[in-house]
Amino acid sequence: MRVITVSGPPSVGKTSVVLKTVAGLAGRAGPIGVVKFDSLSTSDDAIYAKAGLPVVTGLAGGLCPDHFFVSNIDDCLTWAKKKELGVLIAESAGLCNRCSPHIQGILGICVVDALSGIHTPRKIGPMLKFADIVVITKGDIVSQAEREVFAFNVQTANPNAIVVSFNGLTGQGAAELGFHLAQAPMVEGLEGSRLRFPMPSAVCPYCIGETLIGPDHQRGNVRKMSFGDIAQ
């Protein structure tokens, strides 16, 4: 089975990218299913179901969505095997830019939109920098100059990535992305696999429900800001 992670900030068009791409893959990669990870709520599962794709949803709720993802992705593969899928696409939103859902040996895609600002590629951390493919959406809405600068900054942030321009309305770019999806590595399971980048190690009191502010309530792994010499 081929497993592909698709990540990116909210509302960049990840679901449209997936739907347009898999429509062109029919019959070439076997049955395709989707697992949708999100933080609090999602309606994307209904969109995938309407497109005829088997889908399961995982909501992190009060947990860190990044840790929720990595704690459940192997079980998602088991679900996909029971469904006899040929391709499992794990779409994740709600991840902080500090994290990355990409797994060694698994095709990792990051979706970003050109409307987010030309400096955004530098602000998105491992999710973009450790992706195999970076898909740029909404490039038709910005100027040619902005589009080129944005793509340059993406390539600067991740020189090894394949950059694909994608139009979520027309499907332009779907054929190229579909080609890469069809070449994704085959995997039997994810137990023992490694993330490409470690997730935050912090376990602070606010992770476990603390709501009070002040040093008396800050224990564990807490990092404080430096304000220099306040006398100046």
UniProtKB/TrEMBL annotation:
It comes from the Bacteria. One of its GO terms (biological process) is protein maturation. Residues 3-164 form the CobW/HypB/UreG nucleotide-binding domain. Transmembrane segments: none annotated. GO terms for molecular function: GTPase activity; nickel cation binding; zinc ion binding. Pfam families: cobW. InterPro entries: CobW/HypB/UreG_nucleotide-bd, Hyd_mat_HypB, P-loop_NTPase. This is Hydrogenase maturation factor HypB.
